[in-house]
Amino acid sequence: MTDMNQTDIEQTIRDQIAQHSVLLYMKGTPQFPQCGFSARAVDVLTQIGRPFAFVNILENPEIRATLPQIANWPTFPQLWVAGELIGGSDIIYQMFQDGELQPLIEANSPAV
């Protein structure tokens, strides 16, 4: 992705969000999160037990730089469900604790 211009990067992000009903932009991978906030988000999504896609922003510096501008959200991780930004680690955790996140994920991610 090193030769992509800003428009291409933005389109890639929009395509990723459109193609995956549950998408986590995170530092690292679900198997090896590279920050505590990403680990917490993965833990919550794993407890829900439905599949989700992820993008490792550490391997995609263009996405890491561009997504906060598109999302108007400065930090990672970022959870997107059905094309909408849900929020970061604290919001994900709070929604999970309040019982709001699981039905949202289940409605947008088929059981395996």
Describe the protein in words.
The protein has 112 residues and is of the alpha+beta class. The protein has helices at residues 6-19, 36-48, 61-71, 89-97, 101-108, and strands at residues 22-26, 53-56, 78-81, 84-87. It has a four-stranded mixed sheet. Strand 1, helix 2 and strand 2 form a beta-alpha-beta unit. Helix 1 packs across helix 3 (61-71) and helix 2 packs parallel to helix 4 (89-97). The radius of gyration is 13 Å and the shape is globular.
Task: Offer a quick outline of the entry.
The protein is an alpha+beta fold and 112 residues long.
Please describe the structure with a list of short key phrases separated by commas or semicolons.
metal-binding, 4-stranded mixed sheet, alpha+beta, 2 iron, 2 sulfur cluster binding, Monothiol_GRX, redox-active center, Glutaredoxin, 112 residues
Number of strands: 4
Shape: globular
Which stretches of 5+ consecutive residues score pLDDT under 50? none
CATH superfamily assignment? Glutaredoxin
Q: Which strand-content bin applies to the residues?
A: 15-25%
Structural class: alpha+beta
User: What's the alpha carbon Rg, rounded to whole Å?
Assistant: 13 Å
Helix content: 40-55%
Overall mean pLDDT stands at: 95
Distance between the termini: 31 Å
As for the number of domains, it is: 1
Helix and strand element order: HEHEHEEHH
Q: Strand sequence of the main sheet, in spatial order?
A: 2-1-3-4
* CATH uppermost class: Alpha Beta
Number of helices: 5
CATH architecture: 3-Layer(aba) Sandwich
CATH topology tier name:
Glutaredoxin
Q: Describe the sheet with the most strands.
A: 4 strands, mixed
